[in-house]
Design a protein that fits this description.
Belongs to the QueG family. Its EC number is 1.17.99.6. The protein is of the alpha+beta class and about 350 residues long. Among the domains are: about 150 residues, no CATH class; about 80 residues, no CATH class. Helix content is about 35%, strand content about 10%. It contains 15 helices and ten strands. It has a four-stranded antiparallel sheet, sandwiched between helices. A two-stranded parallel sheet has the order 3-10. Strand 8 and strand 9 form a beta hairpin. Helix 13 runs parallel beside helix 15. The N and C termini lie far apart (about 65 Å). The relative contact order is 0.15.
């Protein structure tokens, strides 16, 4: 096992752990969460039966899960706090500023599996990076990578929460690591700071209220009650991580792929809103942002522009999209214009 940890470190992973397959307690919590409809339109959360909570059903023959984490916070990114105080600029979740982490993590997990194979011979395995029905955070918690905080992100005493998770399901019978103790205590900063009160109770998030869900997963119209609280957050939201005391220990990423692209870090809202579809596809190529498509990109930016200080530049930008072919974009542009005192045209 120590060799696996060493190989993982050489490949850029900041921690490697081992979990067994007993996720019964987490399965019960997932069932209750889904029964309340707190997953919103994320039907895929319930679409695979027990495969999500029973690894041996997803990958027959699985006996252990190798879990990894990789820090992603870029050292040269504009601080979230600064962006939230600059309403004319776009605030994009820190994880999405560079190359799509799915690709980075998957390639390195495959290389880790190859290193193991070189040492012991062929073995059954499958790698995952948020790419299949996998309970990533529970597996990471069981393997000692951290504990699930009140905001439902994984927390580590020495690294905060700015990291990605990945897994290798394997038929090797590896000795599991011991979970670590929960260190959230009485703190509720993440609950109190949430702009839309999406953390409805400690360790319980109503995705339908979460800005990350609204800007990334939701395909249709953003409910009006959440548009003002969104501020200038156009892709995801980092507020609960921003205020977490444990993130004072967060480490900057050692992976160049996660360095922010100039267009995406602290970009001007009006400039980003002017991108046509070809520009959007070209400038977001290889990033996680591309998955929402140009239409939802404009939807999110229209809301942010509605929340921006009134100016001729902002009004002109919105007016230029008033007759956009997409009803979704038109609706949010009209809402934005109304925030600046402009009646329907």
């Amino acid at each position: 096992m120590e060799r696996i940890r060493a190989w993982g470190a050489e490949l850029g992973f900041d921690q490697v752990g081992i979990s067994d397959l007993d996720l019964a307690a987490y399965e019960a919590r997932l069932d209750a969460w889904l029964a309340e409809g707190l997953h919103g339109e994320m039907d895929w959360m319930a679409a695979h039966g027990r495969k999500r909570s029973r690894p041996e059903l997803l990958q027959p023959g699985t006996r252990s899960v190798i879990t990894v984490r990789m820090d992603y916070l870029p050292a040269d990114a504009t601080p979230v706090e600064e962006l939230l105080e600059s309403p004319e600029r776009a605030c994009i979740s820190r994880y999405a500023l560079g190359r799509d982490y799915h690709k980075v993590m998957r390639q390195r997990l495959k290389r880790l599996a190859q290193r193991i194979e070189q040492a012991i011979g062929p073995f059954g395995h499958r790698v995952f990076t948020d790419s299949a029905p996998v309970l990533e955070k529970p597996l990471a918690e069981k393997s000692g990578l951290g504990w699930i905080g009140k905001h439902t992100n994984l927390l580590n005493r020495h690294a905060g929460s700015w990291f990605f998770l990945g897994e290798i399901y394997t038929d090797l019978a590896l000795p599991p690591d011991r979970p670590v103790r929960n260190h959230c205590g009485s703190c509720r900063r993440c609950i109190d700071v949430c702009p839309t009160q999406a953390i409805v109770a400690p360790y319980r998030v109503d995705a339908r209220r979460c800005i990350s869900y609204l800007t990334i997963e939701l395909k249709g119209s953003i409910p009006e009650e959440f548009r003002k609280p969104m501020g200038n957050r156009i892709y995801g939201c980092d507020d609960c991580q921003m205020v977490c005391p444990w993130n004072r220990y967060a480490q900057h990423s050692r992976v160049d792929d996660f360095s922010p692209r100039a267009d995406l870090d602290a970009g001007d809202l009006v400039t980003l809103f002017a991108w046509d579809e070809a520009s959007f596809l070209q400038r977001t190529e290889g990033t996680a942002i591309r998955r929402i498509g140009h239409e939802r990109w404009l939807r999110n930016l229209a809301v942010a522009l509605g929340n921006a200080p009134t100016s001729a530049v902002v009004l002109n930008a919105l007016e230029a999209r008033r007759d956009h072919p997409s009803p979704l974009v038109r609706e949010h542009v009209q809402w934005a214009l109304e925030q600046h005192g402009k009646a329907a045209g």
